[in-house]
From TrEMBL, chains A, B:
Organism field: Gryllotalpicola reticulitermitis
Keywords, sorted A to Z: ATP-binding, Cytoplasm, Ligase, Nucleotide-binding, Purine biosynthesis
Entry protein name: Phosphoribosylformylglycinamidine synthase subunit PurS
Length: 92, 92
């Protein structure tokens, strides 16, 4: 079944306290000096065998309206993953 | 500056209540019948101009030890993003 990945990140101009906390923890534990931002990754699996342009457009709408808050977040990617990429971690 | 994206998802065999809640909301609002899983996406920006194999290996360790809980989550990707991809949404 086709899977669509949606990636959402906090807007660049906004503070990201979760990311800051992780960056602080990495520095304190001697793991190095990184800037970190934390966002979300969704996998949407649709019934059926293939992904039409309509379905992809529909998922783009869902990403903008439901999966992200446009005041504070950007949808940075809406992409179809290959079965191979998907199954590599689901073990299917 | 080079940016490395780390993607973490709940293990396939475990329940994902957040994903289930989103799937329920999509169905209730007439947006269609999807399976949804929610994970995390991190952007780590390292100082310096390029990403060495050592740095990438180090980030893989951070992904496994700090950014994910291996009991319930899988690291599904550790990948370098191009400046173009990164700047597209940071507006830099």
């Amino acid at each position: 079944m086709p899977t669509i990945v949606v990636e959402v990140m906090p807007k660049a101009e906004l503070l990201d306290p979760q990311g800051k906390a992780i960056a602080g923890a990495l520095a304190r534990t001697g793991r190095g000096d990184f800037q970190v931002r934390q966002g979300k990754r969704f996998e949407l699996t649709a019934p059926g065998d293939e992904i039409s342009q309509d379905l992809l457009d529909h998922v783009r709408e869902i990403a903008a309206d439901v999966l992200s808050n446009s005041v504070i977040e950007d949808v940075v990617a809406v992409r179809v993953v290959s079965d191979a990429e998907h199954h590599a971690h689901t073990g299917a």
